Amino acid sequence: MKKIGIFGGTFDPIHYGHLRPALEVLEAFKLDSLRFLPTAQPPHRAHPAAPAELRLAMVKAATSEERRFVVDERELKTRQASYTVDSLTELRREFPGDALFLLVGMDAFLGFPGWQRWRELFELAHVVVAHRPGWTLIAEGPLAEEVRTRRAADINVTQTAGKLFLQPVTQLEISATRVRETAAAGGELRYLVPEAVRALILDSHCYQPR
Description:
The structure is a single chain. The chain is an alpha/beta fold. The chain has one domain (3-173): HUPs (Rossmann fold, 3-Layer(aba) Sandwich). It has helices at residues 16-28, 52-63, 84-94, 106-110, 120-124, 142-150, 176-184, 195-204; strands at 3-9, 33-38, 69-71, 99-105, 126-131, 164-168. The protein has a six-stranded parallel β-sheet with strand order 3-2-1-4-5-6, with helices on both faces.
């Protein structure tokens, strides 16, 4: 049984705040690979500022030095709103006997009840919630029930899905919004994003005011 991580997002742009937690989860859970899934159009959010092709190029550039990072283009090919449950369903069909680990941040996890068919996510994959020190988890409601039922401490799983892990990671105070605003203002992007991503942003002027 292989262990495959899944990390979705707009990556508009991808930055070190995405990459460091992804690497730490990869190492902590001894994953065979971690798949980055850039989305074409996230539901309930504004359209990404950079076009899909450029965001894909940035993700490929950012992950090229880690052989266990894989860029999965399936959501970009839909050119419409992407739902995590649909992508996980496809991946489960492709890897029926392997353990899937869905990586999400704490903010995203707390929003799970608003996601499409969110309870099915636990049937399709394990869920790894990356969090920083001082996090708080809701004590009541349907999400709290899932936490009480599924939370596991031992990361050495034998099943392909169904467990919930709360994983502390190094969370850098970097956001895609901050990167876009810095680029729009002509500020310095070094050490916010990998150098290859910085070059793509500067060459494309994708975050400059129109």
